[in-house]
Every structure is written in C-alpha cells, then in structure tokens.
Amino acid sequence: MEKKSKSFYVLTAFFALFILFLYGPTLTIGILSFQGPGGGLTFPMQGASLNWFHELFQEQAVGDIWGSFRRSFALGLMVMVTTVVVSVMGGFAFRKRFYGSGILFYLIIASLVIPSILISLGVGLIFNQFGLKIHWATSGFGSQLTWTLPFGLLIMFAVFNRFDKSFEEAARDQGASPWQTVRYVVLPIIAPSLIGVGLFGFTLSYDEFARTLLTAGSYNTLPLEIFGMTTNVTTPVIYALGTLTTLFSLLIIGAFLLTVWVLGKRRARFGSDAGQGV
Amino acid sequence: MLKNRHIQGWLQAAPLSLVLLGFLILPIITIVVVSFWQATEFSIIPAFSLENYEFLFGSPVTYKVFFATFKYASITWAMTLAIGFTVAYYLAFHIKNQTTQIALFLLCTIPFWTSNIIRMISWIPFLGRNGIANSMLQSWGVIDQPLEWLLYSDFSVILAFVHLYTLFMVVPIFNTMTRIDHSLIEAARDNGASGFQTLTHVILPLTKPGIMIGTIFVLTLVMGDFITVRFMSGSQKANVGRLISNDIALLQYPSAAATAVILLITVLIVIGILLRFVDIRKEL
User: Fold this and answer.
1) Where is the ABC transmembrane type-1 domain (chain B) (predicted)?
2) Cβ contact (<8 Å) for A98 and B13?
C-alpha cells in the first residue's frame, strides 16, 4: 500500500470541515427543536422537550402547515411523473438530431439559467391578463417544470451519450419491433437513471420557492408557508418544522437511493432477462 | 426517411416544447411587453411608454443595486470555486476506493435535495447576537462584545450563498476530473513534475469545462436571487432580485418587468461570454 502523503491528510481535514459546514447548521436546529418550553431560538437549552413538535400539531398555533404539506406532496408527485415522462421522450427525440434541436437545446439551458423570479412574474402576469385563476396545480405546476425539466433532460443527455447502440441493433436484428426495443431493451437499461430523474423532479418541486411565489395562488405550498412563518414566528416551533421537513426529504432521498441500489443488485444477480420480451 | 426522422423527433419533443413555450417563452414575451406599459397605484395601463426604463436608468439606486449584485456574484463565485475545486480534487484523486468515493460524493450532494429556506433559517442560532459563534469567541476571549455583523449583513448573505451553492461547483468539476486519463498524470510525474506542477499544468487545464459549467450555475443563481439576500440580510441589503420583488409587492408590475428585462439581458450576456469557453453538449 502506497504511503499517504501529507497533502492527503490536509485535504481530508479540509473535506471534513466542508461536511461540517454543510451539515452543522441543520444539525444545530435539529438539536434546538427539542428546546424546553421556556427556551428561545438560540442556546442554551432550557431543558429538553417535545413541546415545539407538539405545538406544530395544534391547529391554531401557526398557519395551515398540514394543508400546505399535502399540497407540496401532491405537487411534487405531479412534477415528478411529468418530469420523468417528458424528459425520457425528450431524450429519445434528441437522439434523432432533428431539425431545430439545437434551438430547443438552448431553450433548455435558458430555462435553467433564467432568474426564477422572471418565471414567477411572467406566468403570474399571463394568468392575470387572460383572467385565468392562479393555482398551484396549474400555474405553479408549469412554473416548477421549467426548473425540473432541464435537470431531467441533462441527465437523459448524459445517459444517451453513453448508451451502447449495439443493444438496440441486436434487438432489431432479432426481429423486435421499435416499441419492443424500447420497452424490453432501452428502458430496463436506463431505469436507474430514470429513478434519478424522479428524485430531482420530486425534491426540486417539493423545495421550490421562487418560481412558486407568484404562481401558487391563495393556497400556499410548504416552502411558502415556512417562509411566511419566518416573519412572524419567533419560537423554536419553526425549527421543529424545519427538522421534520428535512427528515422527510432525507427519507425520500433514502428511498430513491435504496431503489437504485436494489435495482443494481437484482441486475447483478439475475444478469439477463432474456426471453422476457416474447 | 430523412423527413420522417425530423417529424418523429418533434413529436417526441412536443410535450417539452409546449412546456417551454407556455412557461418560458410566453412569460418572457409578456414581461418585455409589460415593461413598456404604464402603471398607476391601482392598475396597469397597456399604453406604450418608455417611462419605466427612463426611471430605471435615471435612478442612482439602480446602479448601486446592480453593483451589489455583481459584488455578491463575484465573491460567491471565487469562494465556491476555491472550495468546490479542492473538494472535487480530493474526491477524484485522493479517494481510490470507488464505493467510498460514491458515498462521499453523495454526502456532498444530499443537501441539494433539501429545502434552501430551512438551510438559511438554520444559520440563525449560529450567527445571532447570542449565537454559537459569538458565545464561542467570547468564551475564548477573542472578543468582549458580541459581533453585530455576523447576522443580517453582507457577511451572512455571502456565507449563505456559499453554503447553498458550493455543490453546483463540486458536481461538474468532479465529473470532468473523473474523466481525466490517469496515464497523463503518471506521465507528468515520470517527467519530474511536482504534485503542485501536475495540478496547475495538467489537472487544472483539463478541468476547465467543469469549472465553466459550475461558474454558469453559481453566477446565474446568485444574480437571480432575491430570497437569500432578503432573509440573510434581514431586509437591510438589496440586489436586483429584491428590487423586482419589492416592485411586485407594491403591484408596480411594469416597473418590475423593466428591471427584470435588464436583469435578464445582463445574465444572458454573462452566459453568452461563458459559453464561448465550453461546449455544454460535449461535456454531458
């Protein structure tokens, strides 16, 4: 074994500090959310209690948290499914190098880099001008897609750039129809990446703030509700909420990563699904 | 056959095109149109006028706010690049075990999938007047009085930007670094290059595309931001995004739209310059 150099240890320390910087503040509010009933927004802890979590479940304490959570969850699922389907179709389309694909590519990049508040403002103005009702499931949904689709498509581009075309040629040579080739050859190969696209779709939507700000209408999504709380809630109840939503996010991320891992294991174990497509 | 390919391509890209048309192109067109309209306190009047732009360019606030935006963007860029490059370099060249590498890389990316608002809020107990940083410094005897500039200042704004966006540097730089042919590094070493020389003459030039993509992400996110500046400065600092959101709050949509148009043009110029140095399609 090669002896580790001095730079290795310096860089390891740097990396550890970076991880502490990334996670430290979140862990701090995690601890402070167990603050005793008399405690404030900073240390010291005045005892430990579940008081602030309990308060979250009292109807009158703070706004419509559970309603906004349900809306954010539903919207996240809608955006996730749409992002996966549209990104896969888009990925297939771009492989054909059709006329005008270059312009569409730059529109995707534009969608990624445009300041979010412009989408929020523009979509809000359009809905107002045409007398349409602003609602999280219509204007909010579309606005969020302009943020999740570029990520989904960039992943699909990366996947198809590395895709071995001989698999498809082999399927075609064996007499598979174009649909069978997609269904039994291409989709199973790219499945883990699709789970990745789904993860981006759900979490980016679930946490989106700026693009939903002017497009959610009278019913808030969870990030909007939390931001509203920051201006008028001065108790650790906001930490309790932050801790719960972060735990929820981690749960979702864990579920996605686990699915990718299980798929990989299964594939390694079964090796081939030959004959399944008959 | 050839014609067929183009039609098929457009059919498959149709949902994507419709979303981009309805929620990207049309909103931009609307903003440009509305930026030439007039507004009273109660309504907006669709009549062509340049007064929004005249007001915008005539006001010293505009220049101050644009300057602040560039200041936030450039400082954040420099810091995220320095940290992001170091972290990516460590992961790509010092971690030899692939499973460890993937695990540590995921550890760096997981916060990206959690809420930015919560991650901003979580700095309060750390930076506040009676926060962890102040009490630690006081107990060490470094300071007598709590530092007031830790929270609600340029410092906390930039700290939050670096905290939120370093990820966007780490991922593309790591991605390009893992694709560097290791025989090039061995060749450099065989020819007598020191570790530092290998870094500056071999790795750094080969990592440039990743750095450019990270730069595009960080610059556009910071330049278009309004919420981080508002929250982390306690509404005491301003950037262009806040100028727009303040106008929106006052229902001054034409004025907000004019500022938005100028911001968009600025961002597009910056991206246009950066795209000359990198072919994104090739790097995916």
Assistant:
1) 66-274
2) yes
- Residue B12 · residue B4 · CB < 8 Å: no
Provide the pLDDT for residue A60: 52
Complex ipTM:
0.89
In the numeric block, which tokens belong to residue B39? 């507004």
Give me the residue from B15, B122, B245 closest to A28, CB to CB.
B122
The secondary structure of A266-278 as a DSSP string is HHHHH---TTTT-
Which chain A residues contact residue B156 at CB under 8 A? none
Given an 8 Å threshold on Cβ–Cβ distance, is B123 in contact with A25? yes
Q: Domains in chain A and their CATH numbers?
A: 67-270 (1.10.3720.10)
Contact B117 A90 (CB under 8 A): no
What domains sit in chain B, N to C, each tagged with a CATH number? 59-283 (1.10.3720.10)
Element (H, E) at A2: none
| Integer Cα distance of B231 and B147 in angstroms | 19
Per-residue pLDDT of chain B (284 residues; tens, 9 = 90+): 445 888 888 888 999 999 999 999 999 999 999 999 887 666 777 778 888 898 889 889 999 999 999 999 999 999 999 999 999 999 998 888 888 998 999 999 888 888 888 899 889 888 887 888 888 888 888 888 888 888 888 999 999 999 999 999 999 999 999 988 888 888 988 888 888 888 888 999 999 999 999 999 999 999 999 999 998 988 888 899 999 999 888 888 899 999 999 999 999 999 989 988 887 777 77
| Nearest CA-CA distance, residue B232 and chain A, Å | 11
- Which pTM does this prediction carry? 0.90
CB contact under 8 A, B23 and A142: yes
- In chain A, which residues have their Cβ closer than 8 Å to the Cβ of B284? 154, 157-158, 161
A41/B163 CB distance under 8 A: no
With b meaning 16 or more CB within 10 Å and e meaning fewer, what string describes B32-62? eebbbbebeeeebeeeeeeebbeebeeeeeb
